[in-house]
Amino acid sequence: MPRHLDIQMNSFPIAGTFTIARGAKTSADVITCTLTEAGARGLGECVPYRRYGETMESVMAQIEAARPLIEDGISRTELLHAMPPGAARNAVDCALWDLEAKLTGKSVASRLDLRKLKPLTTAYTISLGEPDVMAAQAREHAQRPLLKVKVGTDDDESRIRAVRAAAPDAAIILDANEGWPEDRLEHHLRIAAEANIVLVEQPLPAGRDDMLAEIARHVLVCADESVHHTGDLASLADRYDAINIKLDKTGGLTEALEMKEEAQRLGFSIMIGCMVGTSLAMAPAVLLAQDADFVDLDGPLLLARDREPGLTYAGSLVFPPEGSLWG
């Protein structure tokens, strides 16, 4: 029986506004791929990201262009060579994993030899804003064990100190989204160390981050926008201590698994992150994150409405996906 591909645009409202150094958004706009074959159905979700030149329309067109190969039965390994890394390939790759699980009756977890899946502690994101507003957000979520705080201005000291005072017991990740000027980098890293920050994510713009190799890094520094796929890793070893693996960057779980293995071999700490998407996008990442050092899979917690069925969250714990959702 032939394989059929369906592609849809979906929008899920964000609870309030999600703000980072590059701007704000009020909805999670995602693309869903559905593959059907022999009565089985596999799903995959991606989030196009303008920072990488992606739009909803361009990603839809990229998937559509690959339709003949996909419907002709392309394998996940062949897909790595047929489509470039990015959101489009992610949706197709994850749909293929899910379809294989449904056709064979063997879960993705079992195929990855993950025998004892466990719930994970995920970061919860505090949006960028004025220090008092960020402190109020942090105070509201101070009981969570891990907060991810969006920064990325030339004067983040007051924001870092305000959030730390509001959540004195939480572990805190700072995500600058490429927003720190070079002349403020060392100052902000010193403040981060004073505030007992556990990780600073992408302080300088991708491609302009050489300075990180020349200074004393007082806190672990994590690459996000600077790293997309396995081939990027070796060149980053002198300037980053950790990498953030996101399926929408790697182009799916298949590449992400290879990337994680190589990153661990090179001695990087591993963070598994996400764009703001639904439980369908988080589900494969939860499997990928089972042995990660840092987990940032709070996308559904930021939404006013998630998919049903969705992942189970209990406070900051996210539980492995049920087969009815994915995998």
TrEMBL record:
<dbReference type="InterPro" id="IPR034593">
    <property type="entry name" value="DgoD-like"/>
</dbReference>
<protein>
    <recommendedName>
        <fullName>Dipeptide epimerase</fullName>
        <ecNumber>5.1.1.-</ecNumber>
    </recommendedName>
</protein>
<keyword id="KW-0472">Membrane</keyword>
<keyword id="KW-0460">Magnesium</keyword>
<dbReference type="Pfam" id="PF13378">
    <property type="entry name" value="MR_MLE_C"/>
</dbReference>
<dbReference type="InterPro" id="IPR013341">
    <property type="entry name" value="Mandelate_racemase_N_dom"/>
</dbReference>
<dbReference type="Pfam" id="PF02746">
    <property type="entry name" value="MR_MLE_N"/>
</dbReference>
<dbReference type="InterPro" id="IPR013342">
    <property type="entry name" value="Mandelate_racemase_C"/>
</dbReference>
<dbReference type="InterPro" id="IPR029065">
    <property type="entry name" value="Enolase_C-like"/>
</dbReference>
<dbReference type="InterPro" id="IPR029017">
    <property type="entry name" value="Enolase-like_N"/>
</dbReference>
<keyword id="KW-1133">Transmembrane helix</keyword>
<dbReference type="InterPro" id="IPR036849">
    <property type="entry name" value="Enolase-like_C_sf"/>
</dbReference>
<feature type="domain" description="Mandelate racemase/muconate lactonizing enzyme C-terminal">
    <location>
        <begin position="131"/>
        <end position="222"/>
    </location>
</feature>
<keyword id="KW-0479">Metal-binding</keyword>
<keyword id="KW-0812">Transmembrane</keyword>
<dbReference type="InterPro" id="IPR034603">
    <property type="entry name" value="Dipeptide_epimerase"/>
</dbReference>
<keyword id="KW-0413">Isomerase</keyword>
<comment type="similarity">
    <text>Belongs to the mandelate racemase/muconate lactonizing enzyme family.</text>
</comment>
<feature type="transmembrane region" description="Helical">
    <location>
        <begin position="266"/>
        <end position="289"/>
    </location>
</feature>
